[in-house]
Amino acid sequence: MADPRAPGDPSPLSVEEEAAWRALARAVLVIPRVVDADLTQAYGISGTEYTILMYLSEAPETSLRMSQLANYVSISVSGLTRAVGRLEREGLVKRVRCSEDGRGQVAVITPAGMTCLRDAWPAHLRSVREHVMDHLQDIDLVAFAAAMRAVAWPEIGPPLRSGVRSRGDEP
Questions:
Q1: CB within 10 Å: which end of the chain, N or C, has fewer?
Q2: A GO biological process this protein is involved in (predicted)?
Q3: Could you tell me the residue ranges of all domains in the chain?
Q4: 10 Å Cβ neighbour count for 51?
């Protein structure tokens, strides 16, 4: 029997590839939900809010442009604006006008935000260990991390921006 695919059509996934794809697709949906639920229950902040605080705490001068932070957190600029607004009302983050061009906004973690992050860290760590790391004990984590970076380098997440790397560029 002749192959029904047109020239140039992709090959079907093998059984193993299909299983890996489906497991990954489910994991990228489930993991954030369970970590979010654990953080909310233990400390009252969402996984997104924790991630915002984490990236700000690691940034030079503990601040990032809102658009850059949205890329790191992988949410839309409007979604980030809402989340930062919640954190700002709690006194954990403040927004200031960008000193470089005066137009954009920069999110800055406050001392209270650093304390919140430090206090929530054990709950986050427990959740990540329980729901992810404990299931990856027999896997080469360096290779796994490299593969995940190749799949989802920060520049391809929302918001989509011009100047996104082409597939041949290093992540």
A1: N
A2: response to stress
A3: 24-152
A4: 22
